[in-house]
Amino acid sequence: MLLRPPSQAFRAVLLVGAFLSGCASYARFPSAAPNSPTLTAAVYRPDATTPRPAVVLLHPCGGIDPFVNDWARWLTNEGYVALVLDSFTPRGVTNVCGTGRGPTMLDADADAFGALRYLRSLPFVDGERVGVIGFSFGGGAALLASRAGYQWLRTPEKGFRAAVAFYPPCELAGTDTTTPLLMLLAGADDWTPPSLCITIGKILERERTPVRWMVYPSAPHGFDQPGPPRTYLGHYMAYDASATADAQRQVRQFLAEFLR
Prior knowledge:
It is a single chain. The chain has a single domain (8-259), classed as Alpha/Beta hydrolase fold, catalytic domain (Rossmann fold, 3-Layer(aba) Sandwich). Helices cover 32% and strands 23% of the residues. The chain contains six helices and ten strands; from the N terminus they run H-E-E-E-H-E-H-E-H-E-E-H-E-E-E-H. The chain has helices at residues 8-21, 66-77, 105-120, 137-145, 195-206, 241-259, and strands at residues 24-30, 38-44, 52-58, 81-86, 125-135, 162-166, 181-186, 211-216, 230-232, 235-237. An eight-stranded mixed β-sheet has the order 1-2-4-3-5-6-7-8, sandwiched between helices. Strands 9-10 form a two-stranded antiparallel sheet. Strand 9 and strand 10 form a beta hairpin.
């Protein structure tokens, strides 16, 4: 089957990202799921002479918003290779929020493992130290990626070494989680409430699974996404600078422990 190349608009976004950061490049690779299209991604690379740990970034249901690339640049400054994965453009989709259409979070989970396999092929990446971070829709995919039943790469290949889920749909959290997991939850979230994540987290904690969670009591959904307060599909979203700053501290500490 012939695969269409990414659109000129998508290439332009990547070129702008490369200009602003000085370290982004364009990548294509297959998903881990069969019969999936060739995926596209931007890869941000820090200045380093030795292989570096890496992180796959999974976007929300509205696609790659600028804040996702902001996180990629932040991770690069922290010394990580950061891959911003686009699960939508290769499938001819721009937004799945509230549509009930695919790709699903399970598809995004498989895409993440395709990105993991790709990163392991790069000489400047330490393939034994790769994590995944997801936001909302992508956070749900990150939860799946942390669970034993949803890991697409089997032996002899290992899965992700760490997973971080920002305000995810908590029905995708599970007690079969085997990957060290950090959940960053919005206490005032009326879209993906955090209560079930906390319940699952306490079960995992009792079972001595490496799991942590942080609840920001007054933060709404999308608290790390800059911009004015807004209502989207009936859900309130607003930037919270304090919650975002603490989330950066939590991510820094968590990745340092499990990827360094």
